[in-house]
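Hello Y.,

Per our agreement to keep a running log of every chain we model this quarter, I'm adding this entry. I've kept the format consistent with earlier entries: sequence first, then predicted structure.
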Amino acid sequence: MSDQIKTYKEEVASKTKEFQSEKAELQKAIDEQKDKAKKAEEAATKATEEAAKAKEAAEKAAKEGGSGGAAPASSSAEVDKVNAELQKAKKEVQEAAVERERFQSQLERLVTELEQKQVGQNAS
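Predicted structure for the entry above:
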C-alpha cells in the first residue's frame, strides 16, 4: 500500500512538473506575442505619423503650385506608400492580438486542467 502511495506521489510530482513546464512555455509564447503586438503597434503609430507628414507635404506642394508636375505625383506616391505600410502594420497588430488571445486561453485551459488534476489526485 505504501509503495502504491509512493508511486502515485511520484506521478503527481512528475505531472505537476510537466504542467509547470508547459505553463512556462506558454507564458513565454504569450510574452513573445505581446512583444510582437507592441512592435506592430509602434510601427503602426510611426506609419500614421509618416502618413500625416507626407499628406502635409503634399498639401503644401499643391498649395504652392509646385515647380513642375513631378513633385505632387511624388508626394502622392509617398502618401500611398505610407498608407500601405500603415495598413500592413494595423493588420499585424490585429493578428498579434488574436494570437495573444489564443495563447492566453490555451494557458488558462492548461492551468485549469492542472488545478483539477492536482485537486483530484490530492483527494485520492
